[in-house]
């Protein structure tokens, strides 16, 4: 398994993924700086950005405000600074306070800081995440708390409505992904009420308890949240992440079956896009050493498993090493092991990074592996990235096929 962002990062991104909420961190600037970078890059809010784009994005940005405690504050107490920070936030904003490791260990009474701030309405304190745990667990835990504080009583079940669980602003090109998924579901008469942690508002989260069903796409990011929704009588179905044309067909067909809908309108669209892509792919693949080449892949199990299957079945590229991020369940590991055994590639699970044609991972590792010569092409399938995507660069759904083929063939 591979190391990655920690639970604290996940907790902050869970809150920052709520369109009209804000994470306030009680801690020093060092704990905050990456959060500011991630929040600004992966969920742009034009109105909240500084006027001068060349100002310091650490001290000038109003994303993830912080109390800026010093080492002396940890001795004498830093809650006065936290109270001041909370008091400076607009009174109409929903604020979730998250403690950094130093202030949590120090036991600062953050509740008293909220009271002293004079801004108690719409300000909530989240429990400390597992500080050294994986990002997915911190995300799930913080988002579940936030949702539990925002939801109202269930009024009525809205027929043919769903919440999408597991997607978040860390998902590569998440806005383009949601646009495609919403459009497909709409064509078969299913409404997406809420996508907690991926752009939905506080009001949408409040009404999410009216959904008929939850569709779980990445279980490692929502196991706790789905149990919370179960208390309202909302059942959850694991549908996974759709990768490739065939994966997307299976995804929409499975959901259509759950609701007794006809998926043919969407299937026809997917078939049309596949035929168009196949003609271009056959032309581009002529003389290209793609078939039979090798790849390494690392990331969340919910993405790695369908991506590995697509690379092997659609492109005939062989997995040399498959590495899962921390947070993968035993069930996911078993599914992956069985799939690799069927490919005759069981040893891929026991390897670390090896020389290969393609290295699929987060954008930073992919670029690094390419730079050091461990692969011929590094392909970003998740965040973080050293660059900003100014056009959709999703890996999920039909749109993801075009991005992946562009990366795998045009280099």
Ordered list of secondary-structure elements with their pairings:
Elements: H1 7-16, E1 21-26, H2 29-42, H3 71-76, H4 79-87, E2 94-99, H5 101-106, H6 110-117, E3 123-125, H7 135-150, E4 158-165, H8 174-187, E5 191-194, H9 202-206, E6 211-216, H10 223-230, E7 235-238, H11 244-259, H12 264-285, E8 294-299, H13 301-315, E9 318-324, H14 330-343, E10 356-362, H15 363-371, E11 375-382, H16 397-409
Overview of the structural elements:
- It is globular, with a radius of gyration of 22 Å.
- The two termini are 28 Å apart.
- It is an alpha/beta fold.
- The strands form three sheets. The protein has a four-stranded parallel sheet, with helices on both faces. It has a four-stranded parallel sheet with strand order 9-8-10-11, with helices on both faces. A three-stranded parallel sheet has the order 1-2-3, sandwiched between helices.
- The relative contact order is 0.11.
- Helix 1 runs parallel beside helix 7, helix 11 packs antiparallel against helix 12 and helix 11 packs antiparallel against helix 16.
- Strand 4, helix 8 and strand 5 form a beta-alpha-beta unit.
- It has 16 helices and eleven strands.
């Amino acid at each position: 398994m591979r190391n990655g962002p920690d639970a604290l990062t996940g907790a902050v991104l869970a809150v920052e993924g709520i369109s009209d909420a804000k994470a306030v961190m009680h801690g020093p600037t060092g704990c905050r700086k990456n959060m500011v970078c991630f929040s600004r890059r992966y969920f742009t809010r034009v109105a909240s950005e500084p006027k001068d784009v060349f100002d310091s994005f650490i001290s000038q940005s109003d994303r993830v405000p912080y109390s800026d405690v010093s080492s002396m504050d940890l001795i004498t107490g830093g809650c006065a600074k936290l109270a001041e920070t909370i008091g400076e936030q607009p009174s109409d904003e929903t604020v979730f306070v998250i403690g950094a490791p130093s202030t949590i260990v120090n036991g600062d009474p953050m509740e008293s800081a909220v009271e002293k701030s004079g801004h108690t309405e719409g300000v909530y304190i989240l429990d400390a995440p597992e500080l050294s745990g994986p990002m997915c667990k911190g995300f799930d835990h913080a988002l579940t708390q936030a949702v539990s504080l925002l939801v109202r009583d269930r009024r009525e079940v809205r027929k043919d409505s769903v919440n999408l669980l597991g997607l978040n602003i860390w998902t590569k090109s998440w806005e383009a992904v949601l646009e495609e998924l919403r459009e497909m579901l709409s064509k078969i008469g299913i409404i997406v009420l809420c996508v907690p942690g991926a752009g939905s508002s506080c009001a949408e989260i409040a009404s999410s308890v009216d959904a008929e069903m939850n569709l779980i796409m990445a279980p490692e990011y929502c196991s706790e949240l789905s149990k919370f929704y179960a208390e309202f009588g909302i059942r959850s179905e694991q549908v996974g992440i759709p990768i490739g044309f065939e994966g997307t067909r299976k995804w929409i067909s499975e959901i259509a079956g759950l609701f007794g809908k006809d998926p043919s309108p969407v299937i026809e669209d997917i078939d049309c896009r596949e035929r168009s892509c196949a003609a271009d792919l056959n032309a581009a693949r002529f003389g290209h050493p793609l078939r039979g080449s090798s790849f390494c892949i690392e990331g969340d199990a919910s993405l790695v498993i369908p991506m590995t299957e697509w690379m092997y079945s659609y492109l005939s590229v062989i997995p040399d090493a498959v590495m899962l991020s921390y947070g993968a369940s035993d069930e996911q590991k078993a599914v992956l092991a069985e799939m690799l055994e069927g490919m005759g590639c069981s040893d891929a699970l026991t390897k670390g990074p090896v020389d290969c044609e393609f290295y699929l991972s987060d954008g930073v590792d992919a670029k690094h592996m390419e730079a050091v010569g461990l692969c011929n092409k590094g392909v970003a399938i998740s965040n973080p990235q050293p660059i900003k995507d100014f056009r959709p660069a999703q890996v999920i759904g039909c749109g993801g096929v075009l991005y992946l083929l562009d990366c795998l063939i045009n280099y």
